[in-house]
Amino acid sequence: MRARNLAPDSDNKIHDDSVAQQFGFSGALVPGVDVLAYATHPFVAAGGAEFLSGGRLEGRFRRPVYDGDVVTVSPGFHEDGATAFTVAGDDGEPRCVGRAWVAHGETFDLRRFVVTPLPTTRLPAEPGAVQLGPFGSVEQAVDLDRHSAYREGIDEDLPIYEKVAHPGALLRLVNELVVHNVALGPWIHTSSDIRFVALAPLPGMLHADGIVTDVYERNGHHYVRYDALVSCDGTPVAFVDHTAIYRLRED
To answer: Which residues pair with 115 in a beta bridge?
Structure first.
């Protein structure tokens, strides 16, 4: 498929050509959540509702995807019940790697997640400002027209998404947790591990609670890792372990 930057007007200026180039990239980055949305396609095509209510997919970004890049999602070898995959550019170089499998029976503690008010003032994106503990919760109403426009933007044609939220839409809400809790400059999503626990029927109200589990520095970049529980109309639909660079190294 041909990747598209659906966020050229985003507050995250890593999706703007001129700002991305200041950080050494060729141009604006396609959002990582949309690259992972591409990666889900073969697994949902094969597993349908079973995968979207009991599957698991983890992906890590190796290289940027730029607007207009032709990318191919290729499921690969099987190991321990999981199928590896690669999202590669037309040069064959991997942009994202990961694996997916059916995860029925895997559990996590729902009691960790509580509705938390958003801060009156977002935390500064400064070393030491982001601490372990809960993020303020976020929610978003999604109607069928809006969701249809998103599906068109990522070239998604599977019929199941006519009335069920796409994983990319769920991940976009997970991004909003850090966006609404931290006063970010340009930032980059680096990996996600998604467990699907139920279908998210639409139209509906999506809600996400988050908990910061780690904050660290690597190669001058400052990272935040957090768990998120996404619900639709009060029913948990996905658990996500999400990592992002919230402050990029300034060379």
So the answer is: none
Q: Is the dihedral of CA 195, 197, 198, 204 positive or negative?
A: negative
The residue count of the chain comes to 251
Which pLDDT score is estimated for 107? 78
DSSP for residue 98: E
Cα–Cα distance measured from residue 12 to residue 19, given in angstroms and rounded to the nearest whole number = 10
Q: How far apart (Å, rounded) are the C-alpha atoms in residues 188 and 194?
A: 18
CA-nearest of 142, 143, 132, 119 to 207 is 142
Which residues of the chain, if any, have pLDDT below 70?
A: none
Cα–Cα distance measured from residue 35 to residue 21, given in angstroms and rounded to the nearest whole number: 20
Separation between Cα atoms, residue 64 and residue 163, nearest integer Å: 31
Structure confidence by residue, pLDDT tens digits, 210-220: 999 999 999 99
Q: Taking the alpha carbons of 187, 191, 197, 200 in that order, is the dihedral positive or negative?
A: positive
In angstroms, the CA 126 to CA 40 distance is: 34
* Residue closest to 173 by CA, chosen among 151, 205, 212, 130: 205
Q: Considering Cα of 156, then 43, then 189, then 229, what sign does the dihedral take?
A: positive
Task: Check residue 133 and give left, alpha or beta (phi > 0: left; psi -120 to 50: alpha).
Answer: left
Residue pair 94/88 in contact (Cβ under 8 Å)? The answer is yes
Domain 13-247 annotated CATH 3.10.129.10: yes
Burial of 18 (0-12, 13-18, 19+ CB in 10 A): exposed
